[in-house]
Design brief:
The complex is a heterodimer.
Chain A: H1 7-17, E1 24-27, H2 32-45, E2 50-53, E3 56-58, E4 83-84, E5 100-104, E6 108-109, E7 115-116, E8 119-120, E9 129-130, H3 137-143, E10 146-150, H4 178-182, E11 189-193, E12 197-201, E13 208-213, H5 219-224, H6 244-254
Parallel strand pairs in A: 1-2, 1-5, 5-10, 10-11
Antiparallel strand pairs in A: 2-3, 3-4, 6-7, 8-9, 11-12, 12-13
Chain B: H1 13-18, E1 25-28, H2 34-42, E2 48-51, H3 54-62, E3 66-71, H4 84-91, E4 96-99, H5 102-113, E5 118-121, H6 129-132, E6 137-140, E7 147-152, E8 158-166, E9 172-173, H7 182-188, E10 191-199, H8 202-207, E11 212-214, E12 219-222, H9 240-251, H10 257-267, H11 272-279, H12 281-285
Parallel strand pairs in B: 1-2, 1-8, 2-3, 3-4, 8-10, 10-12
Antiparallel strand pairs in B: 5-7, 6-7, 8-9, 9-11
Classes of the chains: A alpha/beta, B alpha/beta.
């Protein structure tokens, strides 16, 4: 890699670039890369972005440094909050969530971007692994304009042909009209990003497709670590590196403690 | 017959805890009413259905109080991906989960508050939730013919909350706003018991009536530091070290960690004051207001 950065920093900068000024960016818990990405985008090119952490909505473009990551859980978040979307009426304005962008993790992901936070095992009454639960992801992903699947690891245990249980619908059974048929108004998952690569979904089938591999990772590496056949274009580029300015802003104004290094 | 005097709702913690019984559906807000949660454990209540998340849920599961968890989320907030006692108990089939998510949960609570049998909700359509939780019915809406979920009314017997202040008549005012679910829980429940950091005068409530978040709590308990080890907005920050101790105790291989933790922090102190003595004034004062 010509610019020395970690894969978490690479993903942070990739996601940040994909976020547009004026958007509402909602991040839940335990997602350090999106937490950093929305802050970086806000500082770099998003003076009109609205950041929403656990229902606290804020614009902190004016801050020299935007702290990471306690901001979400810490009740001192009130210092920056302009309104709370969640004080007894959290879901009363989902009609406007097409403006909103969201991020999810998952313990299983299938070829159509359906994901599972419920648990792993064939028998629901005796799960091999009980997951954290769906949180608010079914409702969020039903309505938001688009969302990103962000994973901390990439293995055949996570990328499975079929999720044991589905907590969020990506592209359902596939097809460009998959979500329309289910009556889900939101735009669905745009990218799935991992420590190995960036994936998107094909236009017609909405099947997971390799979009770029990170420096030092081969297409064969990605396919080996994915439990189903990916769509692989003839040319697979390398994921674009952060610019030195992005890395500088990220390291000095967002992640100065080095959580992503 | 009226006594001619307005009834005060200030209540003793032991008396309030005595109104909770085996088999009840108990909803627990956040910031967490930890003093009452410890009373549930101390009283060794059994077969509860709880609406709770995070450490609150995990403590009650670890103590064997829970039969069914109405749970949208059992992770985060205290340093583990999945609450450890909850995870073990569910994997062994000792606790069943009423599988849901935030929008479904709030719809069920709103249905209860509005006196309806159900409310429709879209989030969860296409997922496994209606398969795993057969109380959720897939319906065709009679207006536009869309596929939706019918979420049955969820009516807690009791909701337990922690807030900043209240007067003796049950007018509760939060500092920095209530937790995201608190008002849904209060509106849905048969009874609402609210712990507060401070009792304020009725005149002070009237001076800023717009700040009253719950107008008619059934019981008010004066419980300074009552959310510890969680935060209470404007009063103290979260005691993250104690939350870490809990996770270490839960993860001990010999299984002795949780009984010891529950004994020391929940079962042995008979009252909230005894608990605070055990925590110690130095530790409490080290938790800044902001």
């Amino acid at each position: 890699m010509s610019i020395d950065c970690s894969v978490s920093e690479l993903l942070t900068c990739f996601l940040a670039r994909d976020l547009n000024d004026g958007e509402e960016l909602q991040v839940g818990v335990a997602l350090p890369i999106p937490e950093a990405a929305v802050r970086l985008a806000h500082l770099m090119h998003g003076p009109n972005m609205e950041l929403i952490f656990l229902g606290a909505r804020m614009n902190v473009h004016h801050l020299e440094r935007v702290p990471l990551p306690a901001f979400g859980w810490d009740n001192r978040v009130v210092r920056w909050t302009e309104s709370f979307s969640d004080r007894g009426h959290r879901f009363d304005q989902v009609k406007d969530w097409h403006r909103r962008v969201f991020f999810i993790g998952g313990i299983q992901v299938d070829p159509f971007g359906n994901t599972n936070l419920i648990g792993v095992g064939e028998d629901y009454s005796r799960l091999k692994f009980r997951g954290p639960g769906s949180v608010g992801t079914p409702t969020l992903t039903t309505h938001v304009g688009r969302y990103y699947i962000v994973l901390n690891s990439h293995s055949p245990r996570i990328f499975v042909p079929k999720c044991d249980f589905i907590s969020t619908v990506g592209w359902g059974q596939g097809g460009a009209d998959a979500r329309t048929r289910l009556g889900l108004p939101g735009g669905g998952p745009k990218y799935c990003v991992t420590p190995l690569c960036i994936m998107d979904f094909s236009e017609d089938e909405k099947r997971m497709r390799l979009r770029s591999v990170h420096p030092g990772v081969s297409v064969a590496d990605v396919q080996r670590q994915t439990g189903f056949p990916l769509l692989i274009p003839d040319e697979v580029p390398t994921t674009p590196l952060p610019t030195s300015r992005e890395l500088d802003v990220l390291r000095s104004r967002v992640d100065w403690v080095g959580a992503l290094r | 017959m009226s006594s001619g005097v307005r009834t005060e709702r200030l209540c003793d913690e032991i008396d309030a805890a005595a109104t909770l019984a085996d088999g009840m559906t108990i909803a627990i807000g956040e910031p967490a009413p930890m003093a009452m949660v410890r009373h549930i454990i101390r009283r060794n209540l059994r077969n509860l259905t709880v609406i709770a998340s995070g450490l609150t849920l995990d403590l009650l599961v670890a103590a064997g109080c829970v039969k069914k968890a109405i749970s949208y989320y059992a992770g985060g907030g205290f340093g583990v991906p999945v609450a450890p006692a909850f995870r073990r108990a569910v994997e062994r089939g000792e606790v069943t989960v009423w599988e849901c998510e935030e929008g479904i949960l709030t719809s069920g609570l709103e249905a209860a508050g509005k006196g309806l049998p159900f409310l429709p909700w879209r989030g969860g359509v296409g997922t496994s939730l209606p398969e795993l939780n057969t109380d959720l019915k897939i319906i065709e809406d009679p207006i536009r013919g869309e596929t939706l979920l019918a979420v049955p009314a969820i009516k807690p017997d009791v909701t337990l909350l922690h807030a900043a202040t209240a007067d003796v008549y049950g007018n509760v005012q939060h500092h920095g706003g209530p937790g995201w679910l608190d008002l849904f829980l209060a509106r849905a429940a048969e009874r609402t018991i609210v712990q507060v950091e401070k009792i304020i005068s009725n005149e002070q409530v009237r001076a800023n009536a717009w700040a009253t978040t719950i107008g008619r709590a059934d019981a008010v308990l004066r419980m300074p530091w009552g959310a510890h080890p969680y935060y209470s907005r404007g009063y103290y920050l979260q005691d993250s070290a104690l939350l870490k101790d809990y996770v270490s105790a839960a993860e001990r291989d010999d299984g002795a960690g949780l009984p010891a933790f529950l004994g020391h922090y929940c079962r042995e102190p008979a009252t909230h004051a005894d608990y605070l003595e055990r925590i110690g004034i130095k530790r409490l004062l080290s938790l800044h207001e902001y």
